Amino acid sequence: MTATPVSQVPRDRSSIAAQGETLLEVNNLQKYFPIRGGLMSRVVANVKAVDDVSFNIGRGEVVGLIGESGSGKTTAGRALLRLIEPTGGQVIFNGTDITRLSKAQMRDYRREMQIIFQDPFASLNPRMTVSDIIGEAMQIHNLHPGKGRVDRIAELLQRVGLRPEHMGRYPHEFSGGQRQRIGIARALAVDPSFIVADEPVSALDVSIQAQVVNLIQDLQEELGLTVLFIAHDLHVVEYICDRMIVMYLGRIMEIAPSHELNRNPKHPYTEALLSASPIPDPTVKRQRIILEGDIPSPINPPSGCVFRTRCRYAIQDCANVVPELREVSPGHFKACIRDDVL
Ligand SMILES: Nc1ncnc2c1ncn2[C@@H]1O[C@H](COP(=O)(O)OP(=O)(O)OP(=O)(O)O)[C@@H](O)[C@H]1O
Ligand code: SF4
Ligand SMILES: [Mg+2]
């Protein structure tokens, strides 16, 4: 079997979009971390954490980004916010390519684009009160000056299910779930339109994960937020996400509506990923597929399809061709050269 190499295929970006108006367009995003060595501290290799990643998110849409540990989800989320500088590619937010903006020009976009971090213990400054933590971003952007700021902080705390009278307390006085609520209030403090939620519940007890996911869902609906929701496990986010993006070793393997991805995965990696997680729906039957070995090093990823060293359907051509992300049914894309297996 043969397939056309990526470089020879013109890409139709619009087709990787959601329905409706596009808020965020990510084109060929790349983030390499250089490894330096030798006396001259030259770049001797690169960690290819994110390589040629393209997708769109519609305004008001919730998109899940899933994949095993080390697949590049956090790096992609941070690079598209420019919390770390992308090595290449474009990030078009509301019509503007933000990768070309100066630091000063980025200020207004920082307000629009916020992040909720994975670890609510590490992401809150232990020496700042809740009021200072939430007020800091308002101060940077000169929002709600004077008495109005305290009122706004109280309102936000109430909205995320915390008591306004606790705004003078320090992070260590709260539980993990409450700290994540503070992190959510901090992200909302500057009235963003887009939020990257980077595994916001994976550090929390299972018993409170659903509460925090529900809170994010309520806020998303109420405020019309657009959200990129990063998770290890599809089942944590399936019901709040409109679509899912599956990443492996820095590349996108599959994009599909959540419901469709769960029931009808078209990429061998997604099939294996789903088979490893429990199925809440008893009508869906799955064979358990063991993914042999670890995820390869992103310093020297496999040629062709990066998944080929662990793929049970791999054939010779998989080593020669980087599979294009192509539409296999309306709104369903996969980066795999084989159509005869799934
Ligand atoms: N600052 C850095 N310098 C070098 N390599 C890095 C750096 N940050 C991340 N990496 C590497 O990039 C790859 C992707 O990491 P990333 O944290 O984005 O994965 P992830 O999908 O978010 O994983 P997890 O589910 O564990 O959070 C990994 O191999 C990681 O070791
Ligand atoms: S391109 Fe080949 S190795 Fe990659 S997922 Fe498809 S069948 Fe497996
Ligand atoms: Mg991560």
Automatic annotation (TrEMBL):
Xref: SMART domains: AAA (SM00382)
Ranges of residues in domain ABC transporter: 24-274
Keywords of this entry: ATP-binding, Nucleotide-binding, Transport
Keyword Transferase attached: no
Biological process per Gene Ontology, one example term: transmembrane transport
InterPro entries: AAA+_ATPase, ABC_transp_ATP-bind, ABC_transporter-like_ATP-bd, ABC_transporter-like_CS, Oligopep_ABC_C, P-loop_NTPase
GO MF entries: ATP binding; ATP hydrolysis activity
Pfam families found in the cross-reference section: ABC_tran, oligo_HPY
Family that this chain belongs to: Belongs to the ABC transporter superfamily.
Name of the protein described by the UniProt record: Peptide/nickel transport system ATP-binding protein
High-level lineage: Bacteria, Thermotogati, Deinococcota, Deinococci, Deinococcales
